[in-house]
Amino acid sequence: MLRAGDVQCYWHFAHFGENFYLNFMVQLVTGVALDRHLSVTVNAPSGLIVGKVDNARGQIAFNAKETGFYQMCFSNFHNRFGSMQVFLHFGVYYEGQKEEEKNKKEEDMKQINNTLSFIQESSNRLQRFVFHMWRHYNYERMRRGADFYLLQSNSTYVNSWSAVQSLVIITAGYLQLYFLKRLFKTKPAEGDKPRC
């Protein structure tokens, strides 16, 4: 939850050559100003900005050029009078292997068995695919949460305005009937018979 005009920062460690990713989405906005924009920056350990997004949802992904803690800052400066709930998912993954380790592993695997290397390579590939599938699942879960809050907000808005409009229609009908009755109402004279 980011309060009005608030800035929150988080840190995550990454080694050189690893792939860093950050997914975010504004799920709920409360308060007077309903601006869904969120300013997000990612800074390298040296302080340089490596990614910046100014939107309600976004993704920042890059290859880490330095080893250290990367800073992710979320700023709600667009909303001076409202807070927002943000879903975020971030992490680091490494697809390749270092050349020396790769060559050593290849020699060892040739000595042991080609079948074993094939099994390990397949399991590593499967693990990488499952990891990417999990990232996409989290992104869709984030979108589903934002849609739920939007649906809930729209439902409240429609229900309240429908009730107000129904009340206005009923009141207008009653007032029309009342004034029409008064228009045709006559007072009988003392000797006259009442009209049908």
Automatic annotation (TrEMBL):
Membrane topology (UniProt): Single-pass type I membrane protein
Subcellular location: Endoplasmic reticulum membrane; Membrane
Predominant location category: endoplasmic reticulum
InterPro entries assigned: Emp24-like, GOLD_dom
Residue ranges constituting the GOLD domain according to the UniProt record: 7-92
Name of one Pfam family that matches: EMP24_GP25L
Keywords tagged on the record: Coiled coil, Endoplasmic reticulum, Membrane, Signal, Transmembrane, Transmembrane helix
Coiled coil segments of this chain: 95-122
Source superkingdom: Eukaryota
Family: Belongs to the EMP24/GP25L family.
Name of the protein: GOLD domain-containing protein
